Amino acid sequence: MQDQRLMIPGPTPVPQSVLQAMARPMMNHRSKPFAEILEDCTDGARWMFQTRNDVFILTTSGTGGLEAAAVNVLSPGDRVLALVAGVFGKRWADICQAYGADVERVEWPLGQAYDVERVKEALAKGPYLVLLMTHNETSTTVLNPIAEIAALIRRELPDALILVDSVSGLGTADLPVDALDLDIVVAGSQKAFMLPPGLAYLAVSPRAWEAIGKAKAPRFYFDLVRARDFKAKGQTPWTPAISVFYAMQEALRHLRAEGLTAIFARHERLAMGLRAGVRALGLELLVKDDAIASRAVTGVWPPAGVAANDFRKVMQDRFGIVLANGQGPVQDKIFRIGHLGHVGELDITSCLSALEIALVGLGAKIELGTSVAAAQTEFMRAAAPEPVAAR
Ligand SMILES: Cc1ncc(COP(=O)(O)O)c(C=O)c1O
Fold first, then answer.
1. What domains can be seen in the chain, in order of their start residue?
2. Which of 8, 12, 63 to probe ligand 1 with, by most ligand atoms within 8 A of CB?
3. pLDDT of 390 higher than 80
4. What is the phi/psi pair of residue 186, to 5°?
5. Mean pLDDT in the chain?
């Protein structure tokens, strides 16, 4: 019997010390000790976002964070341009539409990332008050070029609000919120923060605050003005998920010790090692181009004659490795391997080792050890020390 290993794109594995931090007794959330925890966690989230802007920690899931961004900046009839490259891009567009915004969508085919040409064309039909982007499109395992597209938007529509869903992206790939001049960026606890679900994070720019002052969409639980007023008193408007705040303090200790650059490099190394392994077996990746491949999750087509769900069942039953199904048009057709948060190289090589055994058991013609060796080679290449400069 194996312990379960979660390799889905969230919730992700949580370090033991972080789990233990949650076993502390409850406290009064309207007290000085909680105010200190709130401040500490807010500072840590600011560090993850690389921002000096206001950051709010809301007790909700990632979708709640997306809804909070929408209801605070929008009024019915406002023009929104949504860049949709998969299920989560579509979800945010749907949320804005549900609150009465006039939403224009640009859609990309499965497994493709945003490109400047199509966004430029769409911007020409503006102006738009709000632009919606997804940093890491978890459903299609695509990493979108946010820096490039944000720079284009700023040139073409300097006053537009740029909203970014980085629920599964933040902490897996560099997203310097201030340097990119992003207005609201949303993240979630159960992803690279290595926490249980329960908290959403919003980084809010001064430009976004101006819009919040004018917005008319109905809101209550997610009212950021109320959140700001309570934050000034060291509180949240409503009862927070206190245990997840305890956990967050501990997770931040780990994250800060590793450092942002090393965290991004680790996620890149894991993604590239896994991709090298999958390619070595002759399997097809959902996203072919490494440059736009998610650093958080990888989508793979099973070999001919193997059903994706049969394969996932063997991985779970025999090895305890939990993989994710495809989403949208590739549901039940591909499998997705999550590798974000509290994950290291051995998780990738052992997953590949199990994957080979499972595929051979299901009749695939592959040579054992092939993918593991390819991942090892990639890890050694990526971890090679910088050559010492000649004197
Ligand atoms: C990119 C992205 N956006 C939004 C969400 C929604 O988050 P939640 O399921 O926490 O509501 C997810 C969840 O996987 C996600 O990956």
1. 5-9+259-383 (3.90.1150.10), 17-257 (3.40.640.10)
2. 63
3. no
4. -115, 135
5. 97
